[in-house]
Amino acid sequence: MRVLFAGTPAVAVPSLDSLIKAGFDVVAVLTRPDAPVGRKRILTPSPVAARAAELGLDVIKAAKVDADTTARIAEFSPDVAAIVAYGGIVPRAALGVPTHGWINLHFSLLPAWRGAAPVQRSIIAGDDITGAATFQLEEGLDTGPVFGTLTETVRPEDTAGDLLDRLSVSGAVLLSQTLSAIEAGQAVAQPQTGEVSLAPKLTLDDGRLDWSQPALALNRRARGVTPEPGAWTILDGQRVKLEPVLPRPDVKDLAPGTIRVEAQSVLVGTGSHAVQLGRIQPAGKKMMSPADWARGLAAPERVVFE
Known about the structure:
Shape: elongated
Largest sheet: 7 strands, mixed
Radius of gyration: 22 Å
Structural class: alpha/beta
Helix content: 25-40%
Number of strands: 16
Number of helices: 8
Distance between the termini: 56 Å
């Protein structure tokens, strides 16, 4: 079966590899254009583009699936298109190009967390179980009928990056299985049922920690926004980046945002009990341990995060 693969970030690479390993004829790869990376803003191919180049595949780089992109896709006469985190809308004209349409691997148990940041929103919301689903892409936002699902436990220490890494591997297998069933004429998609929730793309503001919130909520938010856009707070008018914080239910006497330096840790008060800081990156400096950061404070007892 001739497959067009569409994807951009690193979490899409296992799916591309899985399709190749399963013996599908991947005729071309659609991905976003090269983007500036690092402090020097060097234009760099997407992880999927880089992997496709290693595999010797034809690559279509497009910021959106417009008429020109649709025409280029049609030139490859795909039987089906597999899409994993491409990062753009597929319009009606393009949806009809492959014989079997577009099959999307989405990292949630649909209809939960439809949108661009399902894993991140799931962690922030405190879900115990999440998963992945393959479904028929439609014009609606992740509304199409579902071919298959898998579940994954959200571990107490999971960041969004950790969970996405695991789902990208197990989801790749699910995608290959779905395409195999379609090729064999055995795939049956079922309409989505259950409560709908939305997972819009994260913004920088989603990473700000509100110290008046309970410790558990701050822990979930910090894990959900790691690695991107990252957790942060304000100190002396400047943004300070934070790695995930750990609840410390044994400490209940700190006011929200107030820090306390202990022998082995740095604590911050919240709306419930304290949290323990992970690594911290002050403005203009590198990420460092909380102990190293605290040693540079003139008066730690006066430090308050906003």
